[in-house]
Amino acid sequence: MKPHVRPQNPCFSSGPCAKRPGWTLKALDGALLGRSHRAKPGRAKIDEVVERSRALLGIPRDYRVAIVPASDTGAIEMAMWSLLGARGVDVLAWESFGEGWATDVSKQLKLADLRLMRAEYGALPDLAQVAADRDVVFTWNGTTSGVCVANGDWIKDDRQGLTLCDATSAAFAMELPWPKLDVVTWSWQKALGGEAAHGMLVLSPRAVARLESHTPPWPLPKIFRLTSKGKFNEGIFKGETINTPSLLAVEDAIDGLRWAESIGGRPALIARAKANLAAIAAWVERTPWIEFLARDPATRSWTSVCLKLVDDWFQRLPVEAQRAAVKRLEALVDAEGAGFDIAGHRDAPPGLRIWCGSTVERGDVEALLPWLDWAYGEVRRAAAA
């Protein structure tokens, strides 16, 4: 039967993600519209984002933090183009974003000493194969596969290479072992439900030393340049952004950070996301037609939760028909206002993807799940008619 209870907030997109509970446009009333980001008040807003992010995430004081252009993509690209090439590099890929970074390193930077370590959707590469004397590029949480690394134990403390970590679906919702990480990137549009187009870049002292000792052989566009005349450009990490940020988006980021602090900081954010995963796990346990895409519960994401449809009827369909069936399911739920943007990523196996990050309420997740059962039943009945 069709359910009657709908989520109060039906937004389950994996980016841009749901705004924090209680958000309204009034949260942006303090935005410095029409002001320069270089004026003292504008700089203060930028510094507030950086320092509140540092405090919430527990970033060491000797790590540099900056706001950079072009979301997480811009941040990780900036790091790769500026830092890689001094050593051999291992690139780990187990979903579409990791594959994107692998393509950039192999086909754009064209590094000769490159090892690509891949795994299919639902699994991780063999992390034990990552060499301590090589740089490594990886995503902490595979946004399109729902598979994350369980911890940083596989990263050597005495490593000679740098670790470049795309943490955009992990920051603020998963613990990041900062001493193990030399570059960390994320975007505002993920775990705190901020607006898109801006990224965050964190560099360890080891990464800063690499910037000053290594000059890449390829040209760098202005928005990628982290050095000036061979020296590390400290200004970028002290509020002097490379290009003009949106002070409206900056205000929204501040609002999200303040909300996170008000509910108990990083531990509370992590607990909220894990509670959302627990709600889905209980449903999966009692639902015969659905399973997690992640094979190992230890590497199962609690932000971008990816699910596969496993009953015999669905499995017998050709892949394109499977995708069409998922789209019909998504459209039914959308039309009822019960859940938006729940289909899996276009590069992933046909299935569902439900954002369960910290801004999502467990009650909304629980209200969504009966609608998935109903919609799946409707799709099956229509196919049998």
Task: Describe the overall structure.
The chain is an alpha/beta fold. It folds into two domains: 25-261, 3-Layer(aba) Sandwich (Aspartate Aminotransferase, domain 2), CATH 3.40.640; 265-384, Aspartate Aminotransferase, domain 1. 35% of the residues lie in helices and 15% in strands. It has nine helices and 14 strands. The strands form four sheets. The chain has a seven-stranded mixed beta sheet with strand order 1-9-8-7-4-2-3, sandwiched between helices. Strands 12-13-14 form a three-stranded antiparallel beta sheet. A two-stranded antiparallel sheet has the order 5-6. The longest helix is centred in the C-terminal third of the chain and has 23 residues, at 362-384. It is globular.
How much beta, percentage-wise?
Answer: 15-25%
Total E-strand runs: 14
Please identify, by name, the CATH architecture of the largest domain: 3-Layer(aba) Sandwich
Q: What is the CATH class designation of the largest domain?
A: Alpha Beta
Tell me the CATH topology of the largest domain.
Aspartate Aminotransferase, domain 2
Major β-sheet profile: 7 strands, mixed
Radius of gyration: 21 Å
CATH superfamily of the largest domain: Type I PLP-dependent aspartate aminotransferase-like (Major domain)
Overall pLDDT score: 97
Low-confidence stretches: none
**Sheet with the most strands: spatial strand order:** 1-9-8-7-4-2-3
Silhouette: globular
**How many domains make up the coordinates?**
2
Helix coverage percent of residues? 25-40%
